[in-house]
Every structure is written in C-alpha cells, then in structure tokens.
Amino acid sequence: xxxxxxxxxxxxxxxxxxxxxxxxxxxxxxxxxxxxxxxxxxxxxxxxxxxxxxxxxxxxxxxxxxxxxxxxxxxxxxxxxxxxxxxxxxxxxxxxxxxxxxxxxxxxxxxxxxxxxxxxxxxxxxxxxxxxxxxxxxxxxxxxxxxxxxxxxxxxxxxxxxxxxxxxxxxxxxxxxxxxxxxxxxxxxxxxxxxxxxxxxxxxxxxxxxxxxxxxxxxxxxxxxxxxxxxxxxxxxxxxxxxxxxxxxxxxxxxxxxxxxxxxxxxxxxxxxxxx
Length: 276
Known about the structure:
The chain is an alpha+beta fold. Helix content is 36%, strand content 23%. It has helices spanning 35-49, 55-76, 90-94, 96-101, 131-138, 182-200, 209-232; strands spanning 2-9, 17-25, 102-108, 123-126, 158-165, 169-178, 244-253, 258-264. The radius of gyration is 22 Å and the shape is globular.
C-alpha cells in the first residue's frame, strides 16, 4: 500500500506535533471519511451540546492574542529578555575546570513568575554574540515559548543547555518540569548535569571500542542517578514531593564520531538526516 501520515495536535502545548508514519492504505478499497475531519466535527458537536464556544472562534482569538504579544515584544525591543534573569552560565566562570573546558555554551534560565502566554524563555549565550551566531558556529538552536494554559497559570518549566567542549564533545540536555515546583526541579537538574557532564567527559578516549562505549553510557546514567539522589536528599531548594522533571541527554563525540543519548520520563531524542 501507500504510506501516509497523520499529525496529532497536543492540547495546551505550543509548537508540538506528533507524526505517525507507516499507516498503510489497502489498494482497491474505498477510503472512509478523513479521520481528522470526523474528529473535528464530533468535537464541535460536543462543545455545542455543553454550551462552549466554537473551536474556530477560540483559535482566531488565540492567534490574535499571539500577534499582539509579538507586536508588543517588538515595540519594546525585548525579543530576548535575558537581562531580567540570573545568568546560569556563571557556573563556567566560577569553576576553573569548566572554564578551561567550555568553548561555547547556551542555557535557559529559571523563571519563577507566571509568564504571559507565548512569552519567550530567557536564554543566555557564552562564546558567541548571540544564539543565532552560536547556531552558525556549532549547529545548535533552541527556543522555548510559553503555551496558553488558562486553567493553570504557571512558569515556563522547560530548560535546556548546550556546551561545546575543547575535547571535541558537543553536549545537549533538554528538561521538562512537571508539578507545582517543576520549574525549580528542572532548573536544579539542569545546573547539576551541566557541571557533572562537562567536567567528567574524558579528554582521552579508550582505545577498545566496547570499553569506550560502556564507559560513556555508565557516565551518563550515573549522572542521572546522582541527580535524582541529590533531589531526594534535599540538597537544593526544590520540592519534589509532587514535582519532578523529565530529561534527555545527547553527547556527540566529534573525534570518535559517536552519538550517545539517554533519557528519563517522556522525553526523547529524534535523529534526522538532511538530504540535499
């Protein structure tokens, strides 16, 4: 049959879609009505039954709000509000080991305020004038935008960091907090993994391929396990009784040409290939 795909939109999240590949159509069989259209029709019917406004009106209202937010942001000249947050990359300047190892880095910053919908997450950059130039130099880009959550206003709980090390490693970590104190948990774990991974990656690689692979996976999994132990030991000001964070780690060894990934929770790494 012919391969097709479906895109599922996630409610309450911004810029999130899931593409399901490999849904086959049998030849010679008349296809039923498009499932997306059927679902939209059913959803509209149920909303009318309970007296809720049409989805089309809500979508138009949301788009208008987003345009207004972007317009106000441009008017204020505050596209990247990094100056209002504490710089998490001070870790490299306060730690001699990290300062000698890190060539360039980028990191989000903790937000404790309940930001308005569509507000950009603060991002700090070291080793380049801007995130755009860091992208050109080291192939890294990142952007986090607050979703519209009417029933539960909360800070943006996304965190990430990227570091280019002198030893030839590119390290990327993405975290997503959950729960009432998830933003603090993600912030604490981000700083912990930044310190641990960047300072622990070896400058000399093992010659034996199997030993090298096992040592790298042990290093990554050990960092995640120690981050969890640190949280439950109460060493940081984060309440983990009803909060936590997912995490995804990617380490690219440019010298060995190996890519390692590890994750905790519903956070994944996607590997893609650009074809010219």
